[in-house]
Each structure stands twice: as C-alpha cells, then as structure tokens.
C-alpha cells in the first residue's frame, strides 16, 4: 500500500498564517492527476510543528475527504511526549486514514529502550498501520538497527521512513526486519540508490514540485531500470540541494508558487519567506530540472 512515490505534502497558508483549505484541495487533486502513489498530510513538510492540534486534525480530515479513497493517506502523528502522540493517534483514528507516520521523540533524547517503549505504547492504542520516522538531523535522536528490528515485530508497525541518507543501513534493515517490512527513504538525494538497494519507495519533498518525474524515477528504480532511473535522478538533482538551502518547507513552498501550483505559500513564525538568494537558487534549479 505504501510504496513508490509518496509526497510529503505542504500545508498551504494564507498571509495571516491560516490554512488555505481550497488550495489544499487543489494540491491533492494535482497529485492524484500526476500519479503520486500516496500522500502524507501534516508531516515535517506540512509544518506540523506550528499547527495546533485542532488545525492538524482539520488538515488531515480535509485531505482524507478530498482524496476520497483514490490513494492512501498517511497522517503525521508524532510527538515528543508519548501521551501526546497517543492522543493524536487516537484522534486521527476517528478521522480514518490508511497509515500514520510517527517521528522519534525530539528534544528530550530518549534511550533506545525508551524508543521501543514509546512506539509500542502508540501502536497498542490503534490497529492502523504505523510507520516509524527516523530523522536525527531534526530530532537529535537516532533509532538503532536493533531498535527498528525489535519494533518490526509489532504487528501494526509496518515500516520506517529513514531520513538519515545513510545507504549502509538499507541492507541490514532489510535482513533484520524481513521482506514484508516497508523501507521508505526520507532523503531525496539518496532515494534512487536507497530503492535500488532494496527500499520500497520514498516520502519526498521534491515530489511537491516535480511529481510526474519523481514517480518515473521511483518506478524505474523499483523495477531495476537503472538507465531511466539515473537519467531522471540527474534531471531532478539540482532540486535536491536547492529545496534545502533554507529550512524545509521554505524553498519548496516558494518553488510551488513560482510554478503556479499554488499562491498559498505563506508560513508561520519562526519560519519566514525565503531570501532573494534562495529564490534565485530555487529558480535556477527549477529551470535545470524541467522535463526533457
């Protein structure tokens, strides 16, 4: 269910910071038309850190309603307090999603035993498939191979989004967790190699601006068509760095506005509009990554 090209969807916002639900609906339609395989609502790229819980749930509900069962919807449900993550998980369960993406607790730096206990406690309150999310560059918390392997034994923990960019993890994870455990990249620059090494897909930022190309890359990599995968990866490569010259999702939101995909590209503090240097960098990357 959660394979191939999955978008880490932005949350469109008006100038006052409120969510633009009309723009959100249009973005969902855009991704379905472009062939995106699944949608992650209110993950990091969706500015989960600045949305209040009622808003968070409203965005998830709006995405689910607009998708109307046409592609899987995965909701971000992570938190650094286990009780908060459980409450969010239970609230999202009432909306009805196909899966949930739960990030490692940030800021408080739990031990590996604490991570196992945290994710076991969340999984125990729901039957909805859970995807672990390991992104130590943001959380200062890294799940070990042994921790992932232990959690893969939990029935409804079905996979991991690995955003470390460390390709040496793929083969050991596959061996330790088995063929049925989903391995999803969360690092666009290494996503092609991740899939060629045995991964099942990628939850992508770049997918927001080049969904058709990114899907082509994923399917080429997953089918072992190395020549096509490399060609598409080369086309998209300028975006991999340009979309992260400032904190995600600042550059990708501006890129979407530049392409005319949406005008609702405002942010909430502490995120701010991109600098002119960032705009120029993104503009050049968009020109270099145009389909040929």
Automatic annotation (TrEMBL):
The active site is at residues 133, 161. InterPro entries: Aldolase_TIM (IPR013785), DapA (IPR005263), DapA-like (IPR002220), Schiff_base-form_aldolases_AS (IPR020625), Schiff_base-form_aldolases_CS (IPR020624). Pyruvate binds at residues 45, 203. It holds the Pfam family DHDPS. GO terms for cellular component: cytosol. SMART domains: DHDPS. This is 4-hydroxy-tetrahydrodipicolinate synthase. It comes from Ferrimonas marina. The lineage of its organism: Bacteria, Pseudomonadati, Pseudomonadota, Gammaproteobacteria, Alteromonadales. The gene is dapA.
